[in-house]
Amino acid sequence: xxxxxxxxxxxxxxxxxxxxxxxxxxxxxxxxxxxxxxxxxxxxxxxxxxxxxxxxxxxxxxxxxxxxxxxxxxxxxxxxxxxxxxxxxxxxxxxxxxxxxxxxxxxxxxxxxxxxxxxxxxxxxxxxxxxxxxxxxxxxxxxxxxxxxxxxxxxxxxxxxxxxxxxxxxxxxxxxxxxxxxxxxxxxxxxxxxxxxxxxxxxxxxxxxxxxxxxxxxxxxxxxxxxxxxxxxxxxxxxxxxxxxxxxxxxxxxxxxxxxxxxxxxxxxxxxxxxxxxxxxxxxxxxxxxxxxxxxxxxxxxxxxxxxxxxxxxxxxxxxxxxxxxxxxxxxxxxxxxxxxxxxxxxxxxxxxxxxxxxxxxxxxxxxxxxxxxxxxxxxxxxxxxxxxxxxxxxxxxxxxxxxxxxxxxxxxxxxxxxxxxxxxxxxxxxxxxxxxxxxxxxxxxxxxxxxxxxxxxxxxx
Length: 462
Description:
- Helices cover about 20% and strands about 40% of the residues.
- It has about 450 residues and is of the alpha+beta class.
- The strands form 4 sheets. Strands 1, 2, 3, 4, 5, 6, 7 and 8 form an 8-stranded mixed beta sheet that branches.
- A hairpin with an 8-residue loop joins β13 and β14.
- The model has no long low-confidence stretch (mean pLDDT about 95).
């Protein structure tokens, strides 16, 4: 992307006004997206994104500038623009690179070797399977996405790091209708690898699952409301951990005192059977990176161990604010964003409890088989989540599917009320938005049980 002598000159230019740290981030990425509606291609797009960003720090003050022009003159001008926000005189000697990292993942089947006919065939297979599931399926929208992202990051601490990050995802959304009512089902697996991902992702299975959820919920009564035990299944059920807890463990919140978990390292914040991990090192996963967007190696960060808070997720600027080691968590959507502390693959670790026993001994309550979207206030931990696929449990047995369920509560309370953690963990894929844009993240967990959560719903007694 750039030779090291030019990079050194850019970093030096950024330090001329008194900064104590400078960073150059460069990106060259290609992506393909295709959308199919009911078997017809509605949109197909190829995109290439090239650019660079320069960041300057002085203590906890940060300045960032970016450019689409990656010529030497433009990079030096961008560094000068970032430096202009810092007041002072140059205090540091010329930059040299002492640490080199190369984490490139060369895909087995590069996306550049795949034509759109092969991509469209996947979409048609997924759509046909979704349509064939039931006559009640009235619309199927299928999306194919692939990304080949090449990045370089270097800084005045002497780090030079280059990475290649291929990712692909296949998403089907089915709509089922009957008697004037409609319900939607969704399934969207993704992996951090090239087109070979479709040796693992089965488009037909994805389409069938999306339609199964839509049809099941179409014939479900409204969920009752109240404070009841809730069993949350694995995979995307881990969005509860992601939203209701770990956003509040990111330095973007903790470093500014805007988190319910500020100052609680070493304290019990969850049930003793709960261990929570953020691990960016899992090869081939949707949220994995070899090193973060600040050039620091990805890590397996144990955030909560046996209920005790062990670590936050911390980037370079957050480390300065918090006096906490960096955790390989500095991430950004692209070169137009400065990095902040973000998640990678975040999950509850496996426990020792039997998944069926959780239901059999819960009495009356809700089984959340598939979670939908949600939101949280990091300062208070208050959350609200939709349940995409839910079942009402009566006397320890599943009675019927229910729709319209929401889970409402506070993350710090829910963590303490987890009384069962299952033996088998799996993950689901999503996009997470925050100060540094939208990034791919995995969420995961085994099946868990919470002794009591407020369930919102419009239904009566079942």
